[in-house]
Amino acid sequence: MTNADPQELAKFSELAHRWWDAESEFKPLHQINPLRLDWINALSPLAGQKVLDVGCGGGILTDSMARKGAIALGIDLATKPLRVAQLHAMEAGTENVSYQEIAVEALAEQRPGEFDTVTCMEMLEHVPDPASVVRALGTLVKPGGWVFLSTLNRNFKAFMLAIVGAEYLLKMLPAGTHEYARFIKPAELAQMCRDAGLELRSAKGLGYNPLTQRYSIGGDTDVNYMIACRRPL
């Protein structure tokens, strides 16, 4: 069975045509992308690397990593967002970027240890078995390579800010985008990474100021957070 929720795939497919509209439901992704891209590039300089973006959707991060000089592959199981990603790459003239509709576990069987850097952003909270995804990430990355993940913490603050605040009060995201029970505590994600043979190197929080409407990276991992790991040599 594929490690995917059909309702989740349908949810993002319905909005696929709006993926590259920076004022659409995907505005938060466009706003945080430069921050996460710079964080990834600082730890694992992307130029000349072979990189994989898992759960790439419409390709916002995938495209930007290619523009940093990486040979980038984005994978997803939602057909419509992938088509949008491919069309955007053609229209924007982005080089060295490609997309494939395949499960990460299947790709791990086909291409183990092939990628210098692997990213999986804003995806783990949308799949039935996040640990299976993390194991596949650990298989796909080369020894010495980096794996970057982001997701949402599971606590009252995250529920109030990420769901009540972002989806219902500020309407930054469509209502129903997230399901609280699928949020993952940092300690839980760290254990998944260790079980996948990865060493935790860095953890950062992603904060939002509703007054300035700006995002920032810091040490507060209470709500949105990112983890960087390496596969030992």
UniProtKB/TrEMBL annotation:
Pfam families in the record: Methyltransf_23
Entry keyword set: Methyltransferase, S-adenosyl-L-methionine, Transferase, Ubiquinone biosynthesis
Pathway: Cofactor biosynthesis; ubiquinone biosynthesis
GO biological process: methylation
Swiss-Prot/TrEMBL catalytic activity: a 3-(all-trans-polyprenyl)benzene-1,2-diol + S-adenosyl-L-methionine = a 2-methoxy-6-(all-trans-polyprenyl)phenol + S-adenosyl-L-homocysteine + H(+); a 3-demethylubiquinol + S-adenosyl-L-methionine = a ubiquinol + S-adenosyl-L-homocysteine + H(+)
Enzyme Commission (EC) number: 2.1.1.222, 2.1.1.64
Binding residues annotated for S-adenosyl-L-methionine, in chain numbering: 36, 55, 76, 121
GO molecular function, one term: 3-demethylubiquinol 3-O-methyltransferase activity
Gene3D superfamilies reported in the protein's UniProt record: Vaccinia Virus protein VP39
UniProt function note: O-methyltransferase that catalyzes the 2 O-methylation steps in the ubiquinone biosynthetic pathway.
Alphabetical list of PANTHER family matching this protein: METHYLTRANSFERASE (PTHR43464), UBIQUINONE BIOSYNTHESIS O-METHYLTRANSFERASE, MITOCHONDRIAL (PTHR43464:SF19)
Family in the record: Belongs to the methyltransferase superfamily. UbiG/COQ3 family.
HAMAP family, A to Z: UbiG
Name of the protein this chain belongs to: Ubiquinone biosynthesis O-methyltransferase
Organism: Paucibacter sediminis
Gene: ubiG
